[in-house]
Amino acid sequence: MLNINYTPPVLKLETDKFKDFILSLKYLYPNQEPEVTTANLLAYLLTDRCEAYPSKRAMNAQMDRLYGLSLDTKTSALGFSHCLEIRIKTLNPRYTQGDIVTEALRFLNDCLRFPLITEDTFNEAKINMTSALKRIQDHPSYLGMIEAAKAIGHDQPLGTFSQGNLLTLESLTLDEVRGFHQKILATQPIVFFSGDPELVAGVDLSTFIHGRLSVQSSSYAFKTISHHESVLEREIEQTNLTQLYSTDVLYNDENYIAMRLMVIMLGQLPNSLLFSEIREKRSLCYSINASSMNFDGIMSIQTGIAFENVDEVKRLIEIQIKRLAEGRFPNKLLTIAQKMMRSSMESIADDRSAYLNFLFQRILTAHELDTSDILQRIKQVAKTDIQAAAKKLTKVSEIVLKGTR
Amino acid sequence: MQRHIYTELNETLVTHTLENGLEIVIIQKPDFMTSSFYFAIPYGSLDLNQVVDGQTVVSPSGIAHFLEHKLFENNNGTDIMEAFSSLSANVNAFTSHTETVYTFSTSRKNISKPLNLLMDFVQNLSITDTSVEKEKGIIIQELRMYMNMPEQRLVFETYQSLYATHPIRLDIGGTEESVKAITKSALETCYSLNYHPSHSLLVAVTSHDPNTIISIIEENQARKTFPKRSEIIRALEYEPKTINRPYFEFTMDIQATKLTYAFKLDCMHEDHLTNLKQEWSLRILLELIFSATNPAYQSWIASGRIHDYFGYEIEINHEYGFVLFFGENDHAEDFKTLIHEGLAMDVTELLSDIDALKRRYFALMLRSLDDHDDYALSYIRSRFNKIPFEKQLEIVKEISVDDILESRKLLETDERCIVVMKGLKNSQE
């Protein structure tokens, strides 16, 4: 069984099929620097130590007492907004002894409201975050995406990397982080609680409700008058090609589903046009995919190839997009894409993280929470809608990370 | 057919073996929309030398992985991937050191068609010389993709340092040379030796009635005949107890030096349960020492010797055993010293945390049963290692303080190696 109850700011998801319960708080603020870097640094501090448990050992001991409770933070970009999520997850009380729920909620509150933000913890978090950002950039596919977005997104949210910026991090001060923490505490988060019916009925979430929820749709359709292409060299085995296209479609526009299906047909199905033509027929790559950044109105294409094949692969990508725009694709490709998208929506509640994320995006864009209208809209997409979506694609950025090893 | 009902988990486990030897396991989880099916073969990248009826069959490295790719070959004009997609089923496959698994998941009520398709395509290899040659280009790009990933490369080089002859030292996908050397004939030989229902396991994680699923499988298998399968033994070259390379350094285009410090263990038993118990005992010991459970951990961080990119991996089975510590540190000797400081520590005070740690591991195992892939893979590995699945869940509870303290002796060995991966800028210093 599955029941959703949304009374802002609290969304409760009643389901008895999982062995644990989740409490998640999502805070929104502008997707710009220095907020983004500050939020990412705060994310480290919130899970490190707090006044009630001032050592890592004490934190660990409490989480183990709560049956291996996991305490996580995550940041993500949603167009004009950025989100800091703090979440706890632990075993359902039917498998434990004692009032684990009240204690777990108290623990989350302690970590959220009273984290240890001192010179020592601040410096330690900076070291960890610096190291993590550098590791991200060591990966060719992530670096390609960051560089491609940065090159054309300087005056729009696309250009802000959701995990933070090294230069901003270097200059960030302790007071700035403390100030941001206070701002977060003064913001009403969206509160998600998922567990079995008795648990959901009895849980007291009042500690996390203190104000009016203010949610504005933050999606935008990226526009630019310029276009960027460059080749960067890295001493790596394989060349990475990253392309970004503007789709000119807002999240949940009437053309949104058609755009999503077009991206699936282009580069997400095992028999997608990119996969079939570039990998299967010509053996030019192992991995090639297209994906959509839904709150930015952007589609990306990425692949790993040999440098000598870059021009050929670019030409083939262009041909596949043209095929979509001109309707030169088999009808069954659209049918299959529709089936796969419907199937994914039908089973989304089996993946709780994906489901909570979906519900969050629906709340953010003021839409119905159930999936029935999406399922209907998927069915209604016609070939001409796919063509229209493909015709709107404009390449805005391209980075070739040339492997020189 | 055997049925176990786990009331407290709200799950039922049904097992059944067909006449042709195919083992079926159905994990019935009500309320889930998604059904997932896994066709598993205990044949992986380690199976390079196989003894069949007294004869040794030697295969090039990467062949199990290559075979996995070729199973998806257009089969009598059917595009397998497209066929699954048109049934609203997501199909995938992977090859590990010890098994190859073909899987699909779907939310559709009709699971008969994709289930039949899964069995039909896995139990039929149809390839040509041309298609084999074509696949080489794809696999070579896959190998290069993994070599671009720093962490993968570091682990690969660590295995090369630990082992002189054991195939764990080779990449699952092989090398570009070994991939180029693979022929249609070699693939067909490996297929006929290893892909047999008596050497396979079909696991379902689903809300559907187990009897319905078993009927579908039985009907499918009844239409097929299989030759008698010979017994196959994995043959290994002699692996010295000594380390292959005590020190190895290489560069990659990365920003911070990363390294591993690995111990080659000499504690392997034929009995898988004994190995599993040793592995868990050691895991708990290392968690007590090298995590926030230990007050010293905070001081190591405060002094800059480690940060949150630090950890360890352990594997002990009947063929090999190792412990591998990894971190980011410009000074390999200091990293080594830190590890030995930890291992030399008196852990008496930390032993009071054992029950809490065991509770954590038990809870994590229980929660992992909500994930279809985790659940199925745990089951598959326990079956292939001949360990009762329930035993895997209980073993942590059974481990005693003595077991944990005793496990420290496994690391009293001189067979250790360091692998350092430097950034291009660091290597010039």
Mean pLDDT of chain A: 95
**Uncertain regions of chain B: pLDDT < 50 for 5+ in a row?**
none
What oligomerization state is this entry in?
heterodimer
Task: Please compute the radius of gyration of chain B using only Cα atoms.
Answer: 23 Å
Q: Determine the structural class of chain B based on helices, strands and strand pairing.
A: alpha+beta
Helix share, percent of chain B: 40-55%
Quick take:
Chain A is an alpha+beta fold and 405 residues long. Chain A contains 15 helices and eleven strands.
How would you describe what is shown here?
The complex is a heterodimer of chains A (405) and B (429). Chain A is globular and about 60 Å long. In chain A, a hairpin with a 2-residue loop joins strand 4 (70-78) and strand 5 (81-91). The termini of chain A are far apart. In chain A, helix 9 (256-267) crosses helix 12 (331-346), helix 9 (256-267) packs across helix 15 and helix 10 (273-280) runs antiparallel to helix 11. Chain A has 15 helices and 11 strands. In chain A, the strands form 2 sheets. Chain A has a 6-stranded mixed sheet. Chain A is 44% helix and 22% strand. Chain A is of the alpha+beta class and 405 residues long. Chain B has 429 residues and is α+β, with helices and mostly antiparallel strands. Chain B starts with a strand and ends in a 6-residue tail after the last strand. The longest helix of chain B has 19 residues, at 129-147. In chain B, helix 1 (63-71) crosses helix 7 (184-194) and helix 3 (112-122) crosses helix 8. Helices cover 40% and strands 21% of the residues of chain B. Chain B has 15 helices and 15 strands. Classes of the chains: A alpha+beta (405), B alpha+beta (429). The interface between A and B is large, with 66 and 71 residues.
